[in-house]
Specification:
Order of helices and strands: HEEEEEEEE
Oligomer: single chain
Shape: globular
Structural class: mainly beta
Number of strands: 8
Distance between the termini: 14 Å
Helix content: 10-25%
Radius of gyration: 13 Å
Number of domains: 1
Largest sheet: 8 strands, mixed
Number of helices: 1
């Protein structure tokens, strides 16, 4: 339980440090992103500036946007999300359209259209 609390605390602190959005930055197109812990991913430090069709985040991953599916322990999407997101903790900082399943919590800062399921 201590580890879950620590992961949630680190995620929330990291989210607060990224308070400014990426609305002024045009996103580059990417197809697949695989991340261990951000920025250790297939796009390295450029992952928050790209949108993907599929993202797999083994521990913690951050992307600029998703138009497809995202799976992982902690998923953090800075832009719009369209599709299916499943994880322990899901964070979307813009509009979400689709299905969002979080074992612990789903956090959306924009409009949410679709279905959300969460353990807490």
């Amino acid at each position: 339980m201590k580890y879950v609390f620590l992961i949630v605390l680190i995620t929330l602190a990291h989210t607060a440090s990224l308070a400014q959005g990426n609305d002024t930055i045009p996103l580059k197109k990417g197809y697949v992103n695989i991340a261990l812990v951000s920025p250790l991913s297939t796009a390295w430090k450029d992952s928050p500036n790209r949108y993907y069709h599929f993202s797999l985040n083994l521990l913690y991953g951050i992307t600029g946007g998703i138009d497809g599916m995202e799976l992982g322990l902690i998923n953090h999407t800075r832009g719009r999300f369209n599709g299916w997101q499943t994880g322990g903790i899901n964070i979307v900082r813009d509009q979400f359209n689709g299905l969002q399943i979080g074992a612990l919590v789903n956090i959306n800062r924009g409009n949410m259209n679709g279905l959300q399921l969460s353990g807490l």
